[in-house]
Amino acid sequence: QVQLVESGGGLVQAGGSLRLSCAASGRAFSSYTMGWFRQAPGKEREFVAGTRWTGELYSDSAKGRFTISRDNSKNTVYLQISSLEPDDTAVYYCAARQGIVARNRYDYAYWGQGTKVTVSS
Predict the structure, then answer these.
(1) Can you tell me the distance from the alpha carbon of 89 to that of 104, in angstroms, rounded to the nearest whole number?
(2) Nearest CA among 110, 117, 116 for reference residue 4
(3) What is the DSSP track for the chain?
(4) Residues of the chain with pLDDT > 90: what percent?
(5) With 90 as the cut, is the pLDDT of residue 28 above it?
(6) pLDDT value for 10
(7) d(Cα 96, Cα 105) in Å, to the nearest integer?
(8) CA 72, 84, 119, 51 torsion: positive or negative?
């Protein structure tokens, strides 16, 4: 089991960038698949990116502007976002699961509380 805490959100102008962090506590962090999801107001929670030792997976909308990475020595997963757009405004959630990278949020057993990203135009 793993516990997750996100940070790094805030108010950013369109065209800017930021890096979200997800600090994890728990045994065998490096063996877990980690994912990032986001949920905009009135929208369903959607997959953004995921990472495991086999590689990374991105949603179509995230390709080119989003980069997921992890530092196992720090038990931390990151989401780098560049060229932010107003449509990127959402609460971003970190998630973990045992198994391959998945796009369905129901495949992830562990969740953080989220960090809010607001992009102004």
Answers:
(1) 21
(2) 110
(3) --EEEEE--EEEETT--EEEEEEEESTTGGGSEEEEEEE-TTS--EEEEEEETTEEEE-TTTTTTEEEEEEGGGTEEEEEE-S--GGG-EEEEEEEESSS--S-GGG--EE---EEEEEE-
(4) 84
(5) no
(6) 97
(7) 10
(8) negative
